[in-house]
């Protein structure tokens, strides 16, 4: 199987990464102090004890709490630069990066300030690490649908500075169909379309994401395997599936990485790829996710297929794609 160095050298795209999920505990504490935000943790050691998650919600509670330490444009720029430097070390050539502006606006921040900070970091990454990147605005599915429309109102004037729209946060009880009009609006704005589905929710949520939201990629998609028709549709239409093994294990989506349906998806012809989700919370960046698969016996050829799928199902233009492959 592949060495760590060979894993890092595989040309790959990061397609499932929440920028807020790259906020390391040390940085959260430093930002809390700098921005005068009270956190209920007296020390790094005490904060670190909060990372023993039992499910998606137990993670989201901490994730949203620590997100409250991000206040200024520089905070977002610094967060982005730190991430892109790490991604570059792991051999990421291109990154399509989620952000959760509804949460930041609810925390009293200005949408344009957040966007400007992230874009400034991305420009730095392009100029200094040669890594291209774009942003996917994630709709927080457990906030009201009207709130999703309000964030699109704020995003619309600068829609050309975004790449796509996504759907994240607590899944069960918030099926994709709730957001059919939100996503139709985003598509009309020229945005690419993806959604988290089948992480904790059932395969019917994956089916809805495909046929009601018209997504081009499914994020996680673990439960797609329960419906052969959904798997076939993803294979036929080259719908990318962005798997995040370390996340799925830490959130107890599976009790062992070997129980993810990655081989079955590959054999069915689904362009599944490997990503890091929220690396500061789940114990590893993208190369660590590849490494975890190598450690349980995924072959060099299989790992290379994941990397190739990430480039195939990215939203870069055809010319750029050829230069990466
Ligand atoms: N699932 C749902 N929502 C999220 C995730 C995730 O893995 N990461 C950040 N928000
Ligand atoms: Zn995610």
Automatic annotation (TrEMBL):
HAMAP family per record: Adenine_deaminase
Domain called Adenosine deaminase: residue spans: 11-325
Top EC class, one word: hydrolase
Upper lineage: Bacteria, Bacillati, Actinomycetota, Actinomycetes, Bifidobacteriales
A Pfam family reported for this protein in Swiss-Prot or TrEMBL: A_deaminase
Cofactor: Zn(2+)
Catalytic activity from the UniProt record: adenine + H2O + H(+) = hypoxanthine + NH4(+)
Family to which this protein belongs: Belongs to the metallo-dependent hydrolases superfamily. Adenosine and AMP deaminases family. Adenine deaminase type 2 subfamily.
UniProtKB keywords: Hydrolase, Metal-binding, Nucleotide metabolism, Zinc
Name listed for the protein in its UniProt record: Adenine deaminase
């Amino acid at each position: 199987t592949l060495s760590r160095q060979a894993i890092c050298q595989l040309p790959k795209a990061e397609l499932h990464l929440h920028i807020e999920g790259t906020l390391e505990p040390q940085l959260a504490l430093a930002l809390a102090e700098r921005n005068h935000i009270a956190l209920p943790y007296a020390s790094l050691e005490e904060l670190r004890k909060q990372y023993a998650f039992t499910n998606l919600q137990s993670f989201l509670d901490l994730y949203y709490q620590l997100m409250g330490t991000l206040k200024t444009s520089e905070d977002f720029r610094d967060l982005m630069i730190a991430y892109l430097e790490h991604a570059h070390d792991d051999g990421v050539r291109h990154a399509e990066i989620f952000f959760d502006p509804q949460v930041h606006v609810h925390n009293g921040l200005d949408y344009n300030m957040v966007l400007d900070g992230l874009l400034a970091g991305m420009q730095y990454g392009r100029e200094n690490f040669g890594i291209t990147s774009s942003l996917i605005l994630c709709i927080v599915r457990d906030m009201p649908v009207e709130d999703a429309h309000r964030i699109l109102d704020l995003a619309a004037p600068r829609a050309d500075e975004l790449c796509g729209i996504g759907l994240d946060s607590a899944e069960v009880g918030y099926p994709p169909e709730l957001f059919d009009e939100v996503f139709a609006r985003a598509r009309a704005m020229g945005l690419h379309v993806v959604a988290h589905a089948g992480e904790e929710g059932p395969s019917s949520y994956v089916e809805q994401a495909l046929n009601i939201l018209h997504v081009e990629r499914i994020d996680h998609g673990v439960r797609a395997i329960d419906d052969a028709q959904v798997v076939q549709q993803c294979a036929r239409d080259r719908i990318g599936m962005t798997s995040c093994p370390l996340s799925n294990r830490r959130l107890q989506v599976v009790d062992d990485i070997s129980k993810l349906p990655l081989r079955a998806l590959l054999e069915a012809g689904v362009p599944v790829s490997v990503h890091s989700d929220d690396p500061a919370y789940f114990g590893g960046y993208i190369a660590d996710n590849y490494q975890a698969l190598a450690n349980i016996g995924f072959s060099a050829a299989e790992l290379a297929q994941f990397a190739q799928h990430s480039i195939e199902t990215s939203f870069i233009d055809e010319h750029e794609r050829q230069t990466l492959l």
